[in-house]
User: Fold Glycine zipper 2TM domain-containing protein from Methylobacterium isbiliense.
Amino acid sequence: MRVIAILAATAALTLSAAGAAEAKGCIKGALVGGAAGHVVGHGVAGAAAGCVVGRHQTNKRDRAKAAQPAPR
Assistant:
């Protein structure tokens, strides 16, 4: 129960601290990373790392979409 409360508080802080444009990819990554980190005993570190990886993947996908030529 304590872990769920910590994860909920972390998610709430993440949502309130990041703007909509900045949170793109971070929330999903933080949830996945927090769950994976919880399994090995490092939920908060997993959530932080998941946020970073989620942002990176989203930025990479956005750059790839921007590089594609527009359909005619």
The radius of gyration is 15 Å. Residues 43-67 form the longest helix (25 residues). DSSP finds three helices and no strands in the chain. Residues 2-67 form one domain.
